[in-house]
Amino acid sequence: MAVTYASYLRLDELLALQRPDEGEQEHDETLFVIIHQVYELWFKEVLHELDFLMRLMRENDPPRMLHTLKRILTILKVLVGQIDILETMTPLGFLAFRDRLETGSGFQSFQFREIEFVLGVKNARVLDRYPEGSRHRQRVEHRFRSPTLWDAFLRFLVANGHAVPSAALERDVTSPIEPNQELQRLLIEIYRTSPAIQSVCERLVDLDEGLMEWRYRHVKMVERTIGTRRGTGGSAGAAYLMNTINRPAFPDLWAIRTEL
Ligand code: HEM
């Protein structure tokens, strides 16, 4: 059979994935389901591009690294922008079907955790949310144990002749990225002497800031929709989320700004 638009994109399968079915759902539930599914599709694409970016770092290919970073950052803008759509849902509109989520929550998004882990936001406790041996747990565990984008970036610096401190190169990749003053001195030097690498660093800061921007918009949306109620995922809700906002993934790139 000839390929068509619908067959290539598997549209019948895609459009059958929105549950509950028409007629059995609250009006705003369609938006809620679709927006989460769209987020997950973009998360899939972001992971695909982050993997590619790490490969390009290993291959020492700055022009394509910058191109890929631009794509990821553009997607991130869309991810932040989508919150505006969800904010057209009123608190009562959401409460009409919130019980249906039971204990389901974005908290459990394994792709979001994979993105955090690739960016170096590592936290072993996250793993406990997925049953041992499950496919989702295996995915998240694999990312947890793997080197991060930052580790790939440090090796890219080495490939370009920069003396990255061994403590940074040999860090435990299952830990969050700790600030390293020796590395910061090197980054300051790089900012002053290597415009191409400086551009890569600035795009990494954009990425870090973009994720924080998403977190901020998400928590404000949560506050305006459910106030200070607890989350369906079992956390304190907005109070928990506020605590996650100001934790940069790449602390060294923020620290050097005071000295530049
Ligand atoms: C009415 C809309 C939404 C509400 C009221 C809401 C509420 C919450 C709450 C209360 C939490 C804290 C965990 C918990 O106890 O459940 C949370 C976490 C989270 N939500 Fe949402 N959310 C909404 C929409 C979204 C959307 C559209 C996404 C996109 C995927 C999303 C992704 C996440 C993620 C990834 C977390 C984990 C954040 C972290 O642990 O740092 N949420 N959400």
Please give a handful of descriptors for the protein shown:
260 residues; mainly alpha; 13 helices; globular; binds protoporphyrin IX containing FE
Structure, briefly:
With 260 residues, the chain is mainly α.
Characterise this structure.
Helices cover 62% and strands 0% of the residues. With 260 residues, the protein is an all-alpha fold. Helix 3 (29-58) runs antiparallel to helix 4, helix 3 packs parallel to helix 6 (110-118) and helix 6 (110-118) runs parallel beside helix 7 (135-145). The chain is globular and about 65 Å long. It binds protoporphyrin IX containing FE (HEM). Protoporphyrin IX containing FE binds next to helix 3, helix 11 and helix 12.
Number of strands: 0
Biggest sheet details: none
Share in β-strands: under 5%
Envelope shape: globular
Q: Approximately how much helix is present in the residues?
A: 55-70%
Low-confidence runs: none
What binds here, in terms of ligands, is: protoporphyrin IX containing FE
Computed over alpha carbons, the radius of gyration is 20 Å
Q: Report the end-to-end length measured between terminal Cα atoms.
A: 62 Å
Q: Give the class from helix and strand content and strand pairing.
A: mainly alpha
List SSEs in N-to-C order: HHHHHHHHHHHHH
- List the total number of helices: 13
Return the average pLDDT rounded to an integer. 97
